[in-house]
Amino acid sequence: MALIYPNLPPMDQLTDYHPKMPLRIYTADHVLMGEFGEERRNLVRINKVPEVMKKAVLAIEDDRFYQHGGVDYIGILRAALHNLVSSNRQGASTITQQVARNFFLTSEQTFKRKIYEVLLAWKIEKALTKDQIFEIYLNQIYLGQRAFGFAAAAQVYFGKPLEDITLAEAAMLAGLPKAPSANNPITNPTRAKQRQQYILLRMKQLGYITDQQYEQAKNESIKVKTSRNEFNVHAKYVAEMVRMMVYDQYKDETYTRGLNVYTTITQKDQEAAYQAVRRGVLDYDRRHGYRGPEGSMDIPANAEAVADAIEDELSRYPDSDDLLAAVVLEASPKQVKAVVSSGEQITITGNGLNFAAAGLSSNASAGKQIKRGSIIRVIKDSNNNWSVSQMPQLEAAFVSMNPNDGAIKSLVGGFDFTQKKFNHVTQAWRQPGSSFKPFIYSAGLEKGFAPASIINDSPVSFAGQASGQSWDPKNFDSRYEGPMTMRRGLMKSKNMISIRILDKIGAQFGQEHVTKFGFDAAKNPPYLTLALGAGSVTPLQMATAYSVFANGGYLIKPYLISYIADSDGKVLSQARPEKAGNEGIRVIDARNAFIMTTMLKDVVRGGTAARANSLGRSDLAGKTGTTNDSVDAWFAGYQPQLVGVAWLGFDQPKNMGGHETGSGLALPVWINYMQKALAGVPVEERPVPPGVVFEGGDWYYAEIPSGKILTNVGVGQKDLDKMYETENNSVKDEIFED
Q1: How far apart are CA 424 and CA 645, in angstroms?
Q2: SS3 string of 325-368?
Q3: Most buried by CB count within 10 Å: which residue of 294, 313, 434, 660?
Q4: Could you list the active site residues?
Q5: 307 and 438: one domain?
Q6: Domain presence at residue 345
Q7: In which domain, by residue range, is 350 found?
Q8: The whole model's pTM is what?
């Protein structure tokens, strides 16, 4: 042995212990929302480990740990005597030996390996204190579910920090080192419970706990974390964006260095956005009818083989949060019995069958019929009642941000990240439709227009556009109302008004102006179609652009990462965003932003976004958008502290339905988000900037009062006289769609 001892590996891995630590991504309010790395681990110092956890591990793994010198001879003798009379064999490896095995040896059962293990244990005991050895063991041991160490296991299995676990939970965790798979409380709760009960008994026998503590822990009902979303916030698109950003800087160290990234996202905002998107998409899907089962399987005739066959089949249809895949066992117009992936059998009756009634009819087509073996989607409501649903084909995106510094508060890149990882907030280039019109109106203000300018809402034809052919644009509803103010034209989202403004100021100037808001010039060419939002933008660009109106004229850069810290809490990098108020990033006059906001408020008060009045706030402004043939639906809106943009459409652009518009599809998503995001936020009105005057019921630049504004665009005297005759007509009961 003396000859072998000097050849043992050095203790550097232990004396300078730096385990692999995963990348962790948090909300601004420190809620974990993403984790990347081969090993889940939370490094915890021995003085931070609760006593119940230490005692539970010592009771089952090595109760004489603090007495022996690395090898427990009494324990070896006790195990040998036990094994002589029992088929339930005991081992005698100490915690120190387990540390030696985990760091330096394989798990092969040979005499030579056992000798090395003993020698290494002696060497470890000479190099480290008992507490240091125990700390390494508590952090390094594998406990199932990719969790290494008891702090990570507490989060994985119970969703709580190690310091908050109960005696009963500690005993259940202590049962994992021997057989992490067999004693896993998620996949094998019965076996895990049996192991836990034995450990509690050992703790009582060793005097670690009292009889009263034993009885209480033995009977405690443990809630194991089995949620389909392993984190407490639905933010997979955000987590993936952050992962890519961090990898660009840290490369492969990203997944082992223990970086903690704190984002600008808040849990409240993110959950509100996620739920709003899900509700908006599913509401659309219900309006457009049941398409039929996702697939089918042959259920085996052998009853014993049914459960395994169903489990295998459902593994091909991942659950989408609360939208679960299920295999139908029985189906009739009055009742459906099915099995979900957890193995639970459910029964659906009554209203729960209404959506799929066509698929339960005896004369249903083959592709739509629900029968035994059909793969369907089911969802449970707040009253625990099941209903038939389906995976939607429509996609959606939502993003919100603070317009004053660019901090992104929520970001939902699609209906389900697991099903589709394409991030529609940043990657989807879509036509913005009428939601782009405010930027054309803003350009008009710079060229002498004002909200009170009179512009003719009548058909117009243009020759020689981009295609070389004549262009005969139409209003969304094909209705024309003659002369009206620019303000009313935006309220009613009249295409002809926007087109005449751009025609008057010049498409080249219009393009130059809109690029000030952060739009790409190449994707928004200088043609009159620009007035109708025929270019291409992303939802994040739209949020950035609307922030210019919200913050008084400044182009701020959106940002997602607030700061990055290492595993010891040392800040490695910190965001330093430019903020509204810095004149170096001003892109439009404060007066322009103010007047545009008054016009966009009118869109909410009595225009195409009138549904937003349900929020009961006077500080909301925004614009709906629907592209040709209802291919894209938008709503972009704001108040002084928050901008939000919602988009819905198909990945392969196609008509969503003749009655589907920005006001009917996207606006409800925005409203549902803002209802939660602005709860408790006081109403705020931005002050009137210098150089703006209120005259004759409307706002003007001081140097361009009502008598000098550009007006009567495309309007003849006869049309003007007619307008004045009817200008007092009320529109408060009208609901406009766009």
Answers
A1: 12
A2: EEEEEEEECCEEEEEECCCCEEEEEHHHHCCCHHHHCCCCCCCC
A3: 434
A4: 61, 434
A5: no
A6: yes
A7: 291-389
A8: 0.83
